[in-house]
Write a structure and sequence with these properties.
The protein is mostly beta strands. The protein contains two helices and eleven strands, in the order E-E-E-E-E-E-H-E-E-H-E-E-E. The protein has a six-stranded antiparallel β-sheet. It has a three-stranded antiparallel β-sheet with strand order 9-10-11. A two-stranded antiparallel sheet has the order 2-3.
Length: about 140
């Protein structure tokens, strides 16, 4: 997944500069993990649970958050806990692209990523369900 964050001020007024991003998306058994490629100007590992990701597919859910990590001396260090995935910053831009792909066309499809650095080059979204029960969600990628 790659693109450009155009730069913007977030809700607190802090400016975030324009930057190129290139991320691989994997699943570690508990979280979807967005990891920047070496060429990405946006840095930071982003982890979101499948329930929180699924809760944001159709509309941004302010209660569904992600954790952002920096790499310091080879170790993951928590940079921002419970980050709002709809934020007007470089990390919110990642979710805009990821969620748009899940909602508008990749469901049930298989294909090769145009990102040459993608770790998993032939994935299929096999199940997205939402709506049975008060807040029931499920997302599964093979």
């Amino acid at each position: 997944m790659a693109g450009i964050f155009n730069g913007a001020a977030d809700a607190s007024g802090e400016w975030h500069n324009q930057a190129f991003y290139s991320y691989a998306v994997t699943f570690d058994g508990a979280n979807f993990v967005l990891t920047p490629d070496d060429i990405s100007q946006v840095k930071g590992i982003v982890k979101i649970t499948s329930a929180n990701l699924a809760a944001n597919i159709y509309a941004v859910d302010a209660l569904a958050t992600a954790n952002i990590y920096s790499i310091v001396n080879g170790q993951e260090v928590l940079y921002e806990e419970n980050a709002f995935v709809g934020a007007n910053d470089q990390f919110g831009k990642l979710f805009t692209q990821l969620l748009t792909g899940l909602d508008l066309g990749y469901f049930g499809q298989t294909g090769l990523s145009p990102n040459q650095n993608a770790l998993n080059t032939n994935s299929k979204v096999i199940s997205i369900t939402r709506g049975t029960g008060a807040r029931s969600t499920h997302l599964e990628i093979s």
